[in-house]
Amino acid sequence: MQDVLVLENVYKSFGKRTIIDDISLTVKTGELFGFLGPNGAGKTTTIKMILGLLSIDSGRISIMGKDIENDFEAAMQNISGIVENPDMYSYLSGYDNLRLHARACGAPKERIDEVIHLVGMQIRINDKFKTYSLGMKQRLGVAQALLHNPKIMILDEPTNGLDPAGIKEVRELLRYLSHTQGMAVFVSSHILQEMQQMCDTVCIINKGRVLKVGTVDDLTKNSKTGLYRYKLSPMENALPFIQQNIPDKIAAMTDEYVDLRISQDEVDTINRRLMDNNLVIYGLNAVEISLEQSYMEITGGGNVIV
Amino acid sequence: MLLFNGSVLLKNERLKLYKKPSTWILMGIILLLVALTVIISYLSQYGMRAYQNKWQDEYLWQLSDAKSMAEIDPDDANIKKMIDTLGYLLENDINPYDWRTDAVNDYFSLKHNVIEPDYDDMKIHYEMIKPDINGFIIGQQTETEKPVETEIDQAELKSRMEKLWTVITKNDWKSYIRYKIDDLKIDYNQAVYKDELDVDIEIYELYLEKNIVPISQNSYFNYGFEQPESEWKGTQIQLIRDSKMNLLQGEDQGGIMYTRAQLKSFENDIKIAQERLSTNTPPIAYNSFLGMLEQAASSLSLITVLMVVYSANLFASEYGSGTIKMLLITPHKRKKIFWAKSRLLLELALISMGIVFIISFIFNGLFTGFKGIGAMQILYVFGNIIRLPYLLYIIVCYLILMLPVIAYGALALMLSVVTRKSAVSIAVTLLLLFTSDLLIMLMTLPVGGAVLPGTKFLIFANTSLQYYLPSAQVAYGEMFYRTVDETMTLGFSVAILLIYIICFIWTARDSFCRRDVK
Fold first, then answer.
1. Scanning every residue of chain B, which has its alpha carbon at the shortest distance from the alpha carbon of A89?
2. Can you tell me the mean pLDDT for B413-419?
3. Please, where in chain A does CATH 3.30.70 lie?
4. Shortest CA distance from A96: residue in chain B
5. Residues 12 to 31 of B: which have CB under 8 A from any A CB?
6. In CATH, which of 1.25.10, 3.40.50, 2.40.128, 3.30.70 is domain A224-289?
7. Are B518 and A87 within 8 A, CB to CB?
8. Residue B346, min C-alpha distance to chain A (Å)
9. In a domain, B114, yes or no
10. Do B250 and B341 reside in the same domain of the chain?
């Protein structure tokens, strides 16, 4: 697997405030890379630097081995993206907007029809951009980003403001692009669930620093705590026992099961104690061993939608 | 046309601009105004001509005036001469530009023994004297007396009157000219201003040499009436005479009446008039098709508003709508994107200029029937006489007058790139545009006898290029000739404007290429 996007020790400050503080990361071909962090962590700033909209104070960003500062045009041949919102010329039709971008990127005319098909915009493509719904705008934005067959596509909060169906569509499209077409996709988000469901690799940043990079499996494996669902018998004895002995571990309790938030090491001890008290464990499974835990641990909280 | 082909970026900019409805709405409004200006200027000229007094009416009015004065003072020779002259001119239908006007006037002056007041002789005359003890050179003012008129004996008077009468009745201008030359030569020895007499004699001989029917020199009779086009040759000779007289006046010791630039323009006028006579090229009349087309160039200033709005929106609208991000992440350097947009602006300026030209061409043509479209223009540039088709000359004028328009566009462009707000840019530029005349007027008000130094290098002092163009000076009149000082020429103003345009564009380019897109 080839390195498509490489950031090496990138710094950026606005005035005296340091926004990006030594970020280094690598995105490989066919990888769906999640860029996760709370609001104001520096996600959009990083993306703007990668796309050449902001200058880099120090450090190096290269795309397919081409430095974006010294060899801008060659580097930009391999990248596309949507920053913040898919802003286009509202008085032009969707097709004209695509035509503009295709011409600027050197994409052939047939490719326009291809991407329109890919995002399913055939019916409304000749309407003015301002008449589109947000979901359609997002899809057109993706279509535009796909025009010149870039090696890497950068999307800034692509699911923002979409309904669940829309989110699912985007997720499937991105999976298709990265896993079937072999394109690297770099997605930023502050929504954890989305990242977990979608991405192969996740990079968590906060306050301009990379806190953790790894595959979703890696991150969740090392997680110290998780949610475990116990099904015990007899239930009427079990509930008072748990309430008495480990009240701080209870996440949820019903007539049928008890959810406990415990670390892996604790599972054995708790099991033994339950059995010692003549309680039968007839069901035990890890309900949600999630990124959320790592995330909370890594960032120490923060305004993340779980 | 290398400027306008190729680049995909330029094609994109075109698509964006020309598919924008506001582009065409604004253009439509401006062009409607241009068409209205052309129509109104034609109608106003038409009206002016329709309501202008005929010379016969003017003469009749003067005649009745003189008659009522004669009742008060029946012995006044001047009034008697006037009544006779006007009566004769009216009776024989001699128009104010006919040379016979002078001859008739001369005849009745002799008849009633009127001595014509000679304004030239009453001119204040300076003589330089040697420096005094303190080393100061003082020009001494001496008012020279009019040389005492020698008594003309009755026999000579009679022969002169007879000569004039035959000249008038036979309509023999050549004899009249010879008569005038003889007359001047008689006075020659007594005259104080021999060089002025020389000019007069030279001019009279020119009439004979070129075989051109002269026009009346007596401005008392022909003042305020439109000169007939058929007598343009006489008018040109008259122009040569006036210019030569002005040159004599300017060279008068101590008492410089004209600025150096004006003296130079007199010299040019003489050369051009001589060229016109030798090549038989009539000048363009103010109200002819080409003359009207040339004046329509003044409506190019309307395009300034158009250009300012377009320039201000060119970058600011991209920032405002957020599309700047999409534009900049294409594989093109910002420099190229900037040049594509600037080139579009230049293209737009030329297109709107072309449309203004075509509109005034068509409308003026409809009014005047495209008469005299193939006329030639004669220019005197850098010591060379240049002949070119008048239509081409007008196009060159239009191009020159586009420079200030482009300069204001560049200013708006720079402001919009730096502030990223079109409203700020439009407001500031239009404010400067509309107050520039006032600003320059205030700055050129003499402050202790001197204009503020450096005023002529300001952009506003150089935006009224129409005052430099040859035919426009006639149209606007010398009165409105407004430059900061006499060292300013068309070349100077064009150079200053170009420098400003380059500075504005360079600042804009630098700002656009360097600044972050937040």
1. B323
2. 94
3. 224-289
4. B15
5. 12, 15-16, 19-21
6. 3.30.70
7. no
8. 21
9. yes
10. no
Task: Say whether both B358 and B269 belong to one domain.
Answer: no
**Is B332's CB within 8 Å of A104's CB?**
yes
B contacts of A144 (beta carbons < 8 Å): 326
Q: Which domain holds residue B443?
A: 2-50+289-514
Contact B331 A73 (CB under 8 A): yes
Q: Is the pLDDT of residue B110 over 80?
A: yes
Cα(A24)–Cα(A27) distance, integer angstroms: 10
How sure is the predictor about B446, in pLDDT bands with cuts at 50, 70 and 90?
A: low
Tokens 């209870």 correspond to what residue? Answer: A250
Tokens of A107: 């994409």
* SS3 call for B372: coil
Residue B243 has pLDDT above 50, yes or no: yes
Please, which residues have CB within 8 angstroms of residue A112's CB and are 6 or more apart in sequence?
A95, A98, A99, A102, A147
Domain boundary among B248, B279, B310: B279
Please give the model's pTM, rounded to 2 decimal places. Answer: 0.80
Please tell me the distance in Å from B511's CA to the nearest CA on chain A: 13
CB < 8 Å to A74, chain B: 331
- Residue B477 exposed, middle or buried by CB count within 10 Å (0-12, 13-18, 19+): exposed
Both B29 and B104 in a single domain? Answer: no
pLDDT band for position B151 (50/70/90)?
low
Is residue B456 in a domain? yes
Residue B471 — φ and ψ, nearest 5°? -75, -25
Q: A80 to chain B: which residues are within 8 Å by CB?
A: 329
Mean of the per-residue pLDDT values for chain B? 81
The reply to whether residue B322 touches residue A87, judged by beta carbons under 8 angstroms, is: yes
Q: Residues of A near B (CB-CB distance < 8 A)? A: 48, 51-55, 72-77, 79-81, 83-85, 87-92, 96, 99-101, 103-106, 144
Name the residue of chain B whose CA is nearest to A70's CA: B333
| pLDDT tens column, A134-144 | 888 988 998 99
Q: A249-263, B120-134, B473-487: which has the minimum mean pLDDT? A: B120-134
Asked if residue B486 and residue B436 are part of one domain, the reply reads yes
Residues B70 and B20 in one domain: no
CB B26 within 8 A of CB B309: yes
Query: Which of B253-257, B283-287, B434-438 is predicted least confidently?
Result: B253-257
The sign one gets for the Cα dihedral A75, A76, A79, A84 is positive
Of B321, B323, B329, the CB nearest to A52: B329
Q: Which of B324, B330, B334 to mutate to test the interface with A (most CBs of A within 10 A)?
A: B330
- CA distances in angstroms from B340 to B335, B353, B517, listed in the order given: 9, 20, 19
- Assigned CATH topology for domain A3-220: Rossmann fold (3.40.50)
Percentage of chain B modeled with pLDDT above 70: 82
Total number of domains in chain B = 2
Do B269 and B251 sit in the same domain of this protein?
Answer: yes
Together in a domain, B275 and B411: no
Residue B398: pLDDT band by 50, 70, 90 thresholds? very high
Q: Are B178 and B245 in contact (CB under 8 A)?
A: no
Q: List where CATH 3.40.50.300 sits in chain A.
A: 3-220
pLDDT bucket at A301, cuts 50 / 70 / 90: low
Q: Does residue B135 form part of some domain? A: no
Between A73, A76, A104, which is nearest B9 by CB? A104
Residue-wise pLDDT for B458-474, tens only, equals: 888 888 887 777 764 44
C-alpha distances in Å from residue A256, one per residue of A253, A262, A273, B53, B309 = 8, 19, 20, 115, 72
State how far the Cα of B374 lies from the Cα of A117, in Å rounded to an integer: 60
* Structure-token pair, residue A43: 């996600």
Return the residue of B nearest to A53 by Cα.
B517
Contact between A54 and B517 using a beta-carbon 8 Å cutoff: yes
Interface test with B, best of A87, A96, A105, A153 (most B CBs within 10 A): A87
Contact A52 B328 (CB under 8 A): yes
Residue B124: what pLDDT? 43
Cα dihedral: B337, B338, B344, B345 (round 10): 160
| pLDDT of B45 over the 50 cut | yes
